[in-house]
Amino acid sequence: MVALSDLTAEQRRLLAEQTIELPSWAFGNSGTRFKVFATPGTPRDAFEKISDAAQVHKYTGVTPRVSLHVPWDLVDSFEELRAHADSLGVELGTINSNVFQDNDYKFGSLTNSDPAIRRKAIGEHLRCIEVMRATGSKVLKIWLGDGTNYPGQDSIADRQARLSDSLAEIYAALDEDQKLLLEYKFFEPAFYHTDVPDWGTALAHVLALGERAVVCLDTGHHAPGTNIEFIVVQLLRAGRLGAFDFNSRFYADDDLIVGAADPFQLFRIMHEIVSFGALDKDSGVNFMLDQCHNLEDKIPGEILSALNVQEATAKALLVDREALAKAQAEHEVIEANQILMDAFSTDVRPLLRELREEKGLDPDPLGAFARSGYLAKIEAERVGGQQAGWGA
Ligand code: PSV
Ligand code: MN
Fold first, then answer.
1. What pLDDT does 391 receive?
2. Ligand with smallest separation from the Cα of 289
3. pTM
């Protein structure tokens, strides 16, 4: 067991300053293609989603930003939404575009062979850039459902060329202080090929765009057995790891609570981040969640996710890097592995409880939230209206 005092001042600073961005859509109803189970008290608009997200920050102290998804979070006034967030002590973060739920995009959006549909999809991104100007968001995140289901269905090469042209037009429309974040996913909804399936393709596109284009690594978007921490290193080396979309997967893109399925993988990822010096808040890597809570209550689900990321980070910081470097240089295979495993096996929960107390927070965020009665309050208040969902 370790205490806060076992950390160096620098380790302590890194841990205390780490922040995690929450997805607005985690607070809305979601489910599978079989059924969406509604929960009483679910937000009916972006304002209520922000209120719920602010609860996560209130109890964890590490989630001061919320990503928005357009059009799911469209409101009459983004200035008002920004002021609402501000009044609750959180900020509006990344803006996610959505060109995967309109009939016109059945055969592709930014890659579609029909110039009118491509234009519409580009226009949707221009609208997101307008939203960013109103919210003060600095990052436009693009994930496409584009791809084909059958060999021969469309020309892979032509689609890549169209994608590259479309992305260049969107990139050119960004302000100087705004970034483009491109997310990859190896399959789904397309099954034969996806137009941005992997980190290599995403990297090739962002490198062609320019310095303010970076890659988003969603931990659920890889084939089973993929060494994700290796990809993390590749993107860091290229200076293009813009963000994580953290979540857990057992099978496909399950979007479960991060650290639930494979806490060791999360630790290995954070170990590479810490080793590379990318944990610092100025490193340019944004630690975001991209999750859906189909069965569990959404606010506790997000609280637990933030705690899991924090735990993996604390363990990664505890790796004795000096001893590890020595063991590696001497090719002491087992020793090197044991040094890493020692850190992973350390119970960092007492240390994190201390850190929260130091920040004036309750050491037990899940318990404190449960005791607050907030869920009962929103269940009583939020009656009528249309609950927010993922628009499927
Ligand atoms: C796609 O599966 C994805 O990971 C993208 O980040 C979308 O924006 C999000 O999920 C939608 O839930
Ligand atoms: Mn994602």
1. 77
2. 2
3. 0.98
